[in-house]
Amino acid sequence: MKMKVQLLLFLGALGAPLGGQAAETSHAPAMPESVAESVHPAVPAAGRVTRAQFTGAVKNLEPLDSLMTLSNDQTRIVYFTEIQDMAGQTVIHRWEYNGKVMAEIPFKVGAVHWRVYSTKTLDPSWVGEWKASVVDAAGGSLSVNTFTYTKATETHSPPAAKTSSTPAQ
Fold this sequence. Notes:
The chain is mainly beta.
């Protein structure tokens, strides 16, 4: 089964899009170590993550809401991050489900003030705890956020009110 992971890069300081990239990954797309090493040398990050959150959508380079839970009647979630003082460095969005790495999306930070988000399409059967991390080139976590993917509750209409009638006498 395939899940889509989209990565869009934006220059947050000017509020103008810089570019974008989309990737489709398989069920467990963790990068082999040899590939990971070639993508980002082991250099500790000098900057920091100033904002990181799950959201339903991003508009004008800003998250529209903040999600801590998502029901499985919805299958798309966005991980938004804002990064400061890491221009030129490679950073990864790492998505984990119940402790298993489901995707690692590397991106190069293009400016001093940089906003980026990745979009995850979830299978409705993947209920449980999800975690997304911003990971630096040395493998250190700069930010970790979690949300719970829950089973949607079925909505039932309340039972009809019972009426009683007494026969006319």
